[in-house]
Design brief:
The protein is of the alpha/beta class and 276 residues long. 42% of the residues lie in helices and 22% in strands. It has three domains: 84 residues, Arc Repressor Mutant, subunit A, CATH 1.10.10; 80 residues, Periplasmic binding protein-like II (D-Maltodextrin-Binding Protein, domain 2), CATH 3.40.190; 99 residues, D-Maltodextrin-Binding Protein, domain 2, CATH 3.40.190.10. It is built from nine helices and eleven strands.
Length: 276
């Protein structure tokens, strides 16, 4: 028994007529009759009683009908599931550790709008066909498509004494305990601001993400990208001194655009990047 047999049975059962059922299935009447006889032989029962005009259904046919409908529906669902999977466009994407969750979520929304059939493999780190990263951390052979400008802000634990100030001046930095990220590429750009501090360092974090969590614990202050401060729920204030900014976007090798999903996504994102 196969789905073809069940579809033939359902058509005859519902039409009560071999000719009409054959028209419905776009097949010939003799071919449909053979299919029905094969099903009857397999089940060892008569399903239809031939009449001068049409057919009458047997008691066994009435038992078989709801089961046949269910089996055909399940087979169609299974078929659609695998066809849809075959139509998916695979893309492997790495995400750098210091990219804020808000930017990861925003990028995923953009990606699924651009490529609705996207089948995404999301991994932490530098692997994949492309990666969501900060421009200053891109490799030499990578191209960069900017998506967001991410300014640095003074990040403080909630309830800090500077919470009452809408903008922090240089003298306000003097007694802060800094949490710094010496291994990060932005550290040198922040040294001039750290020099305004006489109180010293509260500690060194291996990443900006860890620094934001450290600040949230109340151990000190840090100069961090606004996206990370916002994701950690930190108190953020602009500083009346020149602060750097970073750009977050898509890092990729030129040959990676041979991937259809990445190529379509890149084309969709270019207008947004051009506006930066």
């Amino acid at each position: 028994m196969d789905i073809r047999h069940l579809n033939a049975f359902i058509a005859v059962f519902e039409e009560r007529n071999i000719t009409l059922a054959a028209q419905r299935l776009f097949t010939s009447q003799p071919s449909l009759s053979v299919t029905i006889r094969q099903l009857e032989d397999e089940l060892a029962t008569s399903l239809f009683i031939r009449q001068p005009r049409g057919v009458e259904v047997s008691a066994d046919a009435r038992i078989l009908y709801p089961q046949a409908r269910r089996l055909v529906a399940e087979a169609q669902t299974l078929s659609r599931q695998f066809r849809q999977r075959d139509d998916r466009w695979p893309l492997s994407l790495g995400v750098d550790g210091d990219v804020a969750s808000s930017h990861v979520q925003a990028f995923l929304r953009l990606a699924y709008r651009a490529v609705p059939q996207l089948q995404l493999d999301l991994q932490p780190g530098c692997g994949g066909d492309a990666r969501l990263a900060v421009e200053e951390l891109r490799c030499e052979d990578e191209l960069f498509l900017p998506l967001w400008e991410d300014p640095f802000m003074l990040c403080l634990p909630n309830g800090h004494a500077l919470a009452e100030k809408t903008q922090v001046d240089a003298q306000d930095l003097a007694n802060l305990q800094w949490i710094t990220c010496p291994q990060h590429a932005s550290h040198q750009r922040l040294m001039a601001l750290y020099n305004h501090c006489a109180a010293g360092s509260a500690g060194q974090a291996g990443s900006m993400l860890l620094a934001s969590q450290w600040v949230g614990a109340g151990a000190g202050a840090a100069l961090l990208p606004a996206s990370l401060g916002e994701s950690a729920g930190l108190l953020m204030r602009p500083v009346n001194l020149p602060l750097p900014s970073r750009r977050v976007g898509l890092c990729y090798a030129a040959q990676a655009l041979e991937n259809p999903a990445l190529s379509l996504l890149h084309t969709h994102l270019q207008p947004a990047a051009a506006a930066r």
